[in-house]
Fold this protein.
Amino acid sequence: MTRTAPGRWTHDHTGDLTVFLIGMRINKPWRLDAWLPASLAMPRMLRELSRDPSSGFLGYRMAVGAGGPVLVQYWRRTEDVYRYAGDRSAAHRPAWAAFNRRARRVPGAVGIWHETYEIGRAESVYVDMPPSGLAAATAARPVAGRLDRAADRLAA
């Protein structure tokens, strides 16, 4: 288990930042053949990205809600996301092609969505918890002095 960082923390990052959300909605849970392979492909892609600092990938966090799994990814730039998505030598392209083939065989069994946000400024706070989210993807620093209020952190 990751060690708790006592007190208040925020992320420490300057420069460009892109947040990429990607999720899956399993419409027909009994059709494992339609959605399980895509679920199993994502950890391979995350490992591949995490091992390559030149990819622009900074980190991620996963959540599972009523609508299905959601992956929040942090990237240096939007162009890094697009470069990886189009890279024929990376794990994404074959996984995406395989997903599309399966989706055509079982229409409506599983849905995939994504959203891309170019972030000019970001604010965060983490209290008595391990580094997570943006602080884990970039760096963490204690909240003190001029960083005490959310509005001040966003303005910094």
